[in-house]
What we know:
Layout (H helix, E strand, L loop, with lengths): L2 H11 L6 H8 L3 H13 L4 E4 L3 E4 L8 H4 L10 E7 L2 H10 L6 E8 L18 E7 L8 H20 L4 E3 L3 E4 L2 E12 L4 E10 L17 H5 L5 H22 L5 H7 L6 E6 L2 E10 L5 E5 L2 E5 L3 E4 H5 L8
Parallel strand pairs: 3-4
Antiparallel strand pairs: 1-2, 4-5, 5-9, 6-7, 7-8, 8-9, 10-11, 10-14, 11-12, 12-13
Helix pairs in contact: 2-3, 6-8
The structure holds biotin (BTN).
Biotin binds next to helix 5, strand 5, strand 8 and strand 9.
Amino acid sequence: MGPAERIVDWLRTAATPLSGEELARRLGCSRAAVWKHIAALRQGGYEIRGRPSVGYTLGTVPDRLGPAELAPHLAGSWRHVEWRAVVDSTQNLARDLARDGAPEGTIVIAESQTAGRGRLGRQWHSPAGCNLYCSLVLRPPLPPIAVPTFALVVGLAVADAVQALLGARAALKWPNDVLLDGRKVAGILTELDAEIERVRYVIVGIGVNVNTEAFPADLATRATSLRLAAGHPVDRARFTGGLLAALEARYRRFLADGFAAMRPEWEASAALTGKEVRVTAPEGEVSGRVVGVDDDGALRLAGPRGELRVVAGEVHSTRDFVSGRGSERE
Length: 330
Ligand code: BTN
């Protein structure tokens, strides 16, 4: 944390006002320097009240997901937050940081993205200041073949965080969509850099529609937000802290026990079990009834000529195909 963030942290946890002198002592700088930090914080939307010969107290904080705003909500060991107001994609920034040696657990968050991306080359709708756009650098000691199952585990973590917030379980649509009331509330994108036997790093990208109130026309019938589901605005920083803690807990369990240990939970949360679907897979189109997932993360379908396994592709419920909603943007 930088000096301004440390001031916020101290003011937030102080039982009594903190004087400029005390803040200067803690930071090891002059009172004039403290005053400059306070002025910059006020400029950035922090309400900091100062009373002569009493000290400073903290009022409202801005709705932002920077290190200072997230600090009180981070519960696990992942605490290094790289925050930007705008990026092209948090995936790109996280990848650049990973290439430069960023440690496991580095969190990249932006308030908006100009080129947010989803799976299969789609764009991710990324308006400013209302949602969560986050990419996490992980360095799992695993072969690349294990990474697709980890993507399913991330879905479980998002569902855990949504459940903690709303008390309702989100549904998981294979491989990476998180749905509320049948509409997409979050998407997950995992990208990796690996040798044949060893992952160098995985970038786990998570986009959550937190406080979006209205979606563009082409998304309006297929997307939702936590706010729309809850019926009131959601505290983004608190939700993000909960999500990161859920993710870290799931990740540790995944490294210890593998996806197989969580497969029943994934299947219990699955959106399309028992439904007839079509899957656009790299090798062509297949259809069948969803049975579940395998320990390696493959989707299991009961097809007309027996059971099928799908390792990659896009699932459409037959209903979506009939109404021609195959070209999702999100
Ligand atoms: C999908 O459902 O297709 C995956 C969407 C992933 C979106 C997130 S937002 C944060 C991160 N940065 C990106 O550019 N994409 C991911």
